[in-house]
Amino acid sequence: MSILARAINDVANRLRVDPDWGDVAAYIPELALVEPHQLAIAVVTADGTTYAAGDADTPFSVQSITKVFTLAIALGRVGDQLWGRVGREPSGRAFNSIVQLEQENGRPRNPFINAGAIVVTDEILSGRAPRDALAEIVQFIRAAAEDDDIHIDDAVAASETAHGHRNFALAHFLASCGNLKNTPDRTLGTYFHQCALTMTARQLAMAGRFLVEAPDLPRLVSPVRARRLKALMMTCGHYDGSGDFAYRVGIPAKSGVGGGILAIVPGKASIAAWSPGLNRYGNSLKGTEALAQLARQMEWSVF
Amino acid sequence: MSILARAINDVANRLRVDPDWGDVAAYIPELALVEPHQLAIAVVTADGTTYAAGDADTPFSVQSITKVFTLAIALGRVGDQLWGRVGREPSGRAFNSIVQLEQENGRPRNPFINAGAIVVTDEILSGRAPRDALAEIVQFIRAAAEDDDIHIDDAVAASETAHGHRNFALAHFLASCGNLKNTPDRTLGTYFHQCALTMTARQLAMAGRFLVEAPDLPRLVSPVRARRLKALMMTCGHYDGSGDFAYRVGIPAKSGVGGGILAIVPGKASIAAWSPGLNRYGNSLKGTEALAQLARQMEWSVF
Amino acid sequence: MSILARAINDVANRLRVDPDWGDVAAYIPELALVEPHQLAIAVVTADGTTYAAGDADTPFSVQSITKVFTLAIALGRVGDQLWGRVGREPSGRAFNSIVQLEQENGRPRNPFINAGAIVVTDEILSGRAPRDALAEIVQFIRAAAEDDDIHIDDAVAASETAHGHRNFALAHFLASCGNLKNTPDRTLGTYFHQCALTMTARQLAMAGRFLVEAPDLPRLVSPVRARRLKALMMTCGHYDGSGDFAYRVGIPAKSGVGGGILAIVPGKASIAAWSPGLNRYGNSLKGTEALAQLARQMEWSVF
Amino acid sequence: MSILARAINDVANRLRVDPDWGDVAAYIPELALVEPHQLAIAVVTADGTTYAAGDADTPFSVQSITKVFTLAIALGRVGDQLWGRVGREPSGRAFNSIVQLEQENGRPRNPFINAGAIVVTDEILSGRAPRDALAEIVQFIRAAAEDDDIHIDDAVAASETAHGHRNFALAHFLASCGNLKNTPDRTLGTYFHQCALTMTARQLAMAGRFLVEAPDLPRLVSPVRARRLKALMMTCGHYDGSGDFAYRVGIPAKSGVGGGILAIVPGKASIAAWSPGLNRYGNSLKGTEALAQLARQMEWSVF
């Protein structure tokens, strides 16, 4: 058994006995139903080998992790023009805060807080039908994972739509500032479906390979763009817990309220961790801890 | 000619030659079409006599001035329970700010900023159809003015609905905090129609009589409630220009972005001033000035 | 016994049995030593008669109530120029908040929050020695009260200086924005001494007579200025509880953390209420209640 | 000539002809006197070789770059206890903002904004004389640079003290929240002297070697701590321009208002760039650009 395989198993076993599983996101009813005592780690290394432990074949709602992929798509479509509509700075606020949107006149601080991600989706949606935009997003992620068995969970999308008042507030505020090309309903319809993508940890680790930049792994974006996506994951990937994650774990990563985290070790590995219970910043409690332990054991800091 | 009649004419004549008419509200397209060079003053005194000058018979959109009437209606329906949903403090922010709504967890600072007025309308709407709620609002104002020729301008309501993203953001935010009993669409539909009420300065001065509390004028609410409504008009009636208005004019008043202001001299008079151009706080430029000059000339401060 | 005398006694007796005395201000150690179970009401009516109940001859620290007098002095010295340095709007924040000072580039929202009062004192201090500025302040208040037995409590001033970090932060911030003419130490030295003025409720009610504007009461400022001071007391006199005080009590007033409140019934009376325990806004709990009951009983609302 | 030597020269030559030199910091008078048309780049590689171009032997005021060294010292003294007094998150605000300090009850967001660095210095100062604390700071930096010719510029320290009202505001605010162990004067005296350290780009690159973690370079802190210091430099090293720097340059770095930047390529190099003119975030305009170009040319991103 390789060092990595053993490390993954060790971490998973250690964490499974820790009684604090955090709190499952309550504001999306469909997600609140998820059994909290689940944990998965999946790693794809530079040579293409996959290692996994725990519930790595259980599908979960990837939620905000899709923001990494939609950002890659939007930059592919409009390039640096996108930065006229959204910034690149950590927000210093909760993921769904509307305060900064008013203070910065409708330009979200970065593409990974909700307001910024809504703008990114709005950009992808520009000039075509929601179903076409969603098809491109799903297709991009399937291609990245080399796996066509990745789908949108309509029940989750419906649940988010029904309880998405905060996101509607953000979208209408963006519209009132002239920073939305489509109607709030249209953009959010696409956004909620995108967030409702369901993947297993194994699939997510596969989908993240294009960010690793290793000779044997697929490339979907230019090296400069891959590095920049990782830079944003590092500074903004965990909302108002980004600084802490960088300090403790030291690798670029993006979390979702479904409890998943996609982390990239440049040149070395794509990692997906998943456990549904969240910490106070809205990031997976055990997922964060799994990455911290694995990174320490494998000496996988970028610093 | 009485002292008051002469004062009103003097003020109107002086202001009409001043070349700065302010800027007509641009964010509601239908209001932006209003001819700016208009000015009206109408006063109903304690004995019931009406005095008027300028365009006192030209209808205009009363907009936020309706918030005084809807607040009276809502307090009549649920009494002090209303204050669980909305505060009584000046906001220190623009009329449409969403920042404080996040800071105060969805409880608007007072019933005269947009968020607070939406809550008041939502309360009136509770348990019945929008048309019935609107009928009560219109009926209350017609009864107050003793004039059935007061109507809602559907074109203005439609224009506000089409360009009301900021209000939709506020309503969805309220909903996300559990402080909306109806759907945002339903409450805002009622709210936009209420704001689109059209009245002349003469009608508005008549409608304000119940707040004067004079033996010969009609009473629609208890004396305590009338005083409290005037207290709120004093501290919160001009958004973030309320302190300045109290300092310069010294009587309780409520402004609307259509350029109207309803001011009350307790025990003495109900005044309506109107001129469509606004100052930087969103209050009528010449309307404010007319009230300042008239109050000074008539010694009508409450202080 | 007159109606007013009976009303004052009734209110005082009722309130003395209520077991909730609020919390004495803890952040100034010298004030924290004050026995909380004290209550005083003193009223001077338009004919110059004084009515009092409770501990009306016990001296207490008037603290922020001096801001009314220093504002009158500063306006007398520089007139409306003062408003270039300080605004006239309610703050929507706590009395010692520094947030708005940064948002408004060092121009305090109004002269009754700490930052604004520091600017007013700084203006009075401009071009002369602290002792001369303090002498003018004390002399003004003695003249207003027609009582030379009004003094500064040096122990309270020393206690505030030693524990006044928040005020030092405000003063240095003002200096960093170029809105302080003297050094922070010099201005705050004067400010802390001014706040440490000690008066009885009877003396305070006497000192407030010039704001009543009655033929038999002394006048120290012009009628326009007196009205404007009262307008500011109404909109800003109770920090972030000003709207609530206007709603419940309906007369202009200014509170201090020593538990005193000076309230003015225009044309009718100057009232001082005192009880050391504070409510959550930092205003006297029983003092506010005393004024609310007295105003209701005497029908003393300005509205 | 090596590839690196050529790259450094190319970058320096290209930047020297660009006419936009930014604006020298104006709020510290002594720094405002610095000739703006200066540029230096110095690099120490993993094998200990130094490469330099431009004004690499001209001393400049390192200012906030000292915060990296004082953080290392403070962590050495009290370890993770330090994080009870200061956070690890990007601030989303200007370097000298006081807003967040109020919102977070006196716990600065991170150790690299002014408020946080004042807390770090206060911790180092705890229990001993300012001269001893300063001696340790200077000694640490001299040891890191293996160069005793590094000194504090008293004229700069005096200039900052005389014009440091904003920092005094921060320190007094911290004290008012109980988050200062020494008096504001004492802590700021030490802080201003620490910031007034003068170094050449060559010396600064030498001093940064301990963060590189290469076998031939000196180590002053544990590997885990070195990585964590770099993580904080990445997420918080450029104030509200940190996200942009990570995106464009992709290596951990810390800037100072004197126009210097210390950047670390883990395992490979310590870089000092210097040019006095600043961009709108308060970071060296040409220094940032030099690092961006050099990092791109040498493929020195951590991502």
Q: Quick gist of this model?
A:
Chain A is of the alpha+beta class.
Q: Can you put this structure into words, describing what you see?
A:
The structure is a homotetramer of 303-residue chains. Chain A is of the alpha+beta class and 303 residues long. Chain A folds into two domains: 3-60 and 199-298, Beta-lactamase (3-Layer(aba) Sandwich); 64-197, DD-peptidase/beta-lactamase superfamily (Beta-lactamase, 3-Layer(aba) Sandwich), CATH 3.40.710.10. In chain A, 46% of the residues lie in helices and 12% in strands. Chain A is built from 13 helices and ten strands. Chain A has helices at 3-17, 29-32, 66-78, 99-103, 114-125, 130-145, 154-162, 165-176, 184-195, 201-207, 223-236, 242-248, 285-298; strands at residues 23-24, 40-45, 50-54, 60-61, 151-152, 197-199, 253-255, 260-265, 269-274, 277-278. In chain A, strands 3-2-9-8-7 form a five-stranded antiparallel beta sheet, with helices on both faces. In chain A, a hairpin with a 3-residue loop joins strand 8 and strand 9 (269-274). In chain A, helix 7 packs across helix 9. The model of chain A has no long low-confidence stretch (mean pLDDT 96). Chains A and D meet through helix 11 and helix 12 of A and helix 11 and helix 12 of D.
